[in-house]
């Protein structure tokens, strides 16, 4: 049986809780009948505002229920997921929690039996007709869905501070190659400007830059092949991607390891660094700061990924044995509503999971994102748990932590190839 690091930690924490060594999650069992607990990691300015818009919509329709916002800070859910696991294993689930489609929702929550089928809700609300079938497939077991999907993020976007580049006579066109990016980076560095922004206090953030570089260098088919074993992590083009990623690391702000992903957005806004390779949750932060698209900032696909949409999507489950099943069904019902998805995604910097949202409500960037979603090849993210199981995700984080320091491409490649084999998909 595959050992799962997250589960190991969760088990340990549970034993500590059972032994009375701390934690407050037991208090949640005393939650009143008129409450519902929603668990997520949405705590940055834009994430919190977007989540709040869902709570507001719910409370307009169900005014008598108090929403308990059980968010745990830490982008990508790095801190939230272990806590959640502890609660699930300890039979103390929140009513509903945030998770990603694909291996994460299936491997962590559906297969172990922590989540409830939402087939009835999908039927009642007509969702089988408004959510894209490939997305429904990613959240379904035996034809029954377990997640209400709120949004779609493109995680391979390269953001830039437009006025800063203009001051240095640099314009970015429709596409940018790695070579062009490196040439610009050299020019900026020579002028005393930090070329790339990063906030990887949570290692997943540099993982995004790695994943983007990987897809950009090896291309769609080879990238997809990593997850079915037809591409090896030790292939020469994968190593070339690792080398390119290593070169990018040389241009980061020196305090990157101390910053969260959204603190690095602040640096981008201030102009103390020029580019940020990061998912379009960045767009939510730029909107929160009241910036104007294509004036204060610009964007382009991460080099080489113009035709690729690395998809990061979020949804909410219903806990098996949810303390408040009726309220849970209702808040999920609200999350699937068209206007709620529009309001949420305008704040979140994402596009609707529903196919019938009103495009005219969305601005230039999000329309661009919708066009690429429709025309590019959709590929899963490993950093956010859709492409490979949690133990591989953890191994990737560990390997990235080592690589950022030692820059040893062969060791990086060997480790990932071994871990992929251990996870049952590598060759
Ligand atoms: C992802 C999530 C996004 C975004 C990001 C940073 O896991 O899917 O919605 O919030 O983390 O926290």
Structure description:
The protein is α/β, with parallel strands linked by helices. It has two domains: 6-152 and 312-374, D-Maltodextrin-Binding Protein, domain 2; 157-309 and 382-422, Periplasmic binding protein-like II (D-Maltodextrin-Binding Protein, domain 2), CATH 3.40.190. The chain contains 17 helices and twelve strands. The strands form three sheets. Strands 1, 2, 3, 6, 10, 11 and 12 form a seven-stranded mixed sheet that branches. Strand 1 (35-40), helix 2 and strand 2 form a beta-alpha-beta unit. The longest helix has 23 residues, at 204-226. The protein is globular, with a radius of gyration of 21 Å. The relative contact order is 0.17. Residues 1-30 have low confidence and may be disordered. Residues 41-42, 47, 75-77, 153, 261, 281, 312, 314, 384 line the site of beta-D-galactopyranose.
The CATH architecture category of the largest domain equals 3-Layer(aba) Sandwich
Radius of gyration: 21 Å
What's the average pLDDT?
A: 93
Portion of residues within helices = 40-55%
Order of helices and strands: HEHEHEHHHEEEEHHHHHEHEEHHEHEHH
The molecules bound to the chains, other than polymers, are: beta-D-galactopyranose
CATH topology of the largest domain: the name is D-Maltodextrin-Binding Protein, domain 2
Beta percentage is: 5-15%
């Amino acid at each position: 049986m595959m050992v799962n690091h997250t589960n190991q930690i969760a088990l340990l924490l549970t034993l500590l809780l059972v032994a009375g060594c701390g934690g407050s999650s037991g208090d949640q069992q005393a939650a009143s009948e008129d409450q519902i607990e929603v668990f997520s990691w949405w705590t940055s300015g834009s994430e919190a505002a977007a989540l709040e818009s869902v709570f507001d919509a719910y409370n307009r329709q169900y005014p008598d229920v108090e929403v308990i916002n059980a968010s745990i800070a830490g982008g990508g859910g790095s801190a939230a997921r272990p806590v959640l696991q502890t609660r699930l294993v300890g039979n103390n689930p929140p009513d509903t929690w945030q998770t990603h489609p694909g291996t994460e929702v299936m491997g962590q929550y559906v297969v172990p039996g922590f989540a409830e089928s939402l087939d009835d809700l999908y039927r009642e609300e007509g969702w089988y007709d408004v959510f894209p079938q490939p997305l429904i497939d990613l959240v379904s077991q035996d034809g029954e869905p377990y997640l209400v999907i709120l949004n779609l993020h493109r995680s391979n976007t390269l953001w830039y501070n437009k006025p800063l580049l203009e001051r240095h006579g640099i314009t970015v066109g429709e596409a940018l190659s790695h070579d062009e990016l490196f040439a610009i980076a050299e020019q900026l560095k020579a002028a005393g400007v930090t070329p790339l922004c990063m906030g990887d206090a949570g290692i997943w953030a540099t993982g995004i830059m790695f994943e983007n570089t990987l897809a950009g260098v090896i291309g769609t088919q080879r990238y997809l092949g990593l997850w079915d074993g037809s591409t090896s992590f030790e292939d020469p083009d994968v190593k070339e991607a690792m080398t390119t990623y290593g070169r990018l690391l040389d241009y980061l702000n020196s305090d990157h390891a101390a910053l969260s992903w959204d603190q690095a957005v602040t640096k981008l806004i201030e102009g103390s660094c020029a580019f940020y390779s990061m998912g379009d949750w960045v767009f939510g932060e730029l909107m929160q700061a009241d910036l104007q698209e294509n004036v204060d900032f610009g964007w382009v696909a991460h080099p080489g990924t113009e035709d690729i949409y690395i998809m990061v999507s979020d949804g909410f489950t219903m806990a098996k044995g949810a303390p408040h099943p009726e309220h849970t069904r209702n808040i999920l019902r609200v999350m699937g509503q068209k206007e709620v998805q529009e309001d949420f995604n305008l704040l979140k910097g994402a596009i609707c999971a529903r196919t019938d949202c009103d495009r005219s409500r969305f601005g230039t960037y999000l329309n661009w994102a919708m066009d690429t979603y429709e025309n590019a090849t959709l590929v899963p993210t490993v950093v956010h748990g859709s492409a490979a199981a949690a133990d591989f995700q953890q191994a990737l984080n560990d390997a990235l932590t080592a690589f950022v320091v030692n820059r040893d491409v062969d060791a990086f490649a060997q480790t990932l190839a071994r871990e992929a084999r251990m996870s049952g998909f590598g060759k």
